[in-house]
């Protein structure tokens, strides 16, 4: 890669559900090397296989200061699959509404911080615009949808009755949110997780959860709600899982759970979701071999960086 070109190679992971997006099929499942110790592969972990007729990527472009960059022309983008350049078939840069699934951790480990999580959720909802929609979920030993997708800007009353209890099924919550998002008409989709990141009882593996989100074309944004007095080991464990989901789906990890920095981070996420570039291409490799295809987006401007998902698994 030339010195004048920055790249972001999407991150990978293997996992499960396969979902179709309105005729134009987006394919994504992920096989990834983890920054933390990966759980043992479950026997029911399947590779997500979708038609590779069209691969769709939502791409975020930022400058050296991390600010979102508008009006980047199609001509400066290049897409590579397994290091082979691909022809861009579709390109869109318009501002569009988004659908978001907001996941609130209500497990026992969140005791004393449920109110903070609710406040953070309201903070995020306040930043959404009139045509954006959000669904609210909480998860502990099970996953519950507290509110279906709605343009409302407040938490439903039931959210204020939620108490910290039980285990943490973070992976299962991401799978559930991904399945619901896959039914939405919006092109831009996201999962925002407010959690201490310590999954303790999910049936789904982290691989399966990530692949579910990618198959639904959903970007994961995570907010670390671990206590400020947690040990370094605890913080590393919780942040590791949350960072992994964000990095490998093309999202963002937020370490500070309150104050001005959180408001700014949420404002950035909202702006990012509404202003991403959507790029589609038809892979030159048409083999139905079930193999992982690494995807990379490059921007031919030295001051800019691109961020997107890291690949997909071909059909078999």
Q: What does this entry look like structurally?
A:
The chain has 316 residues and is an alpha/beta fold. It folds into 2 domains: 6-37 and 44-95 and 277-313, no CATH class; 98-273, 3-Layer(aba) Sandwich (Rossmann fold). Helices cover 22% and strands 26% of the residues. It has 5 helices and 15 strands. It has helices spanning 114-126, 170-181, 206-215, 232-249, 260-274; strands at residues 6-8, 55-62, 77-81, 84-86, 88-92, 98-105, 133-139, 143-150, 188-195, 218-224, 253-254, 277-281, 292-299, 305-307, 311-313. It has a 6-stranded mixed sheet, sandwiched between helices. Helix 2 runs parallel beside helix 3 (206-215) and helix 3 runs parallel beside helix 4. The protein is globular, with a radius of gyration of 18 Å. The model is unreliable at 1-52 (pLDDT under 50).
Put the structure in a nutshell.
This protein is an alpha/beta fold and 316 residues long. The protein is 22% helix and 26% strand.
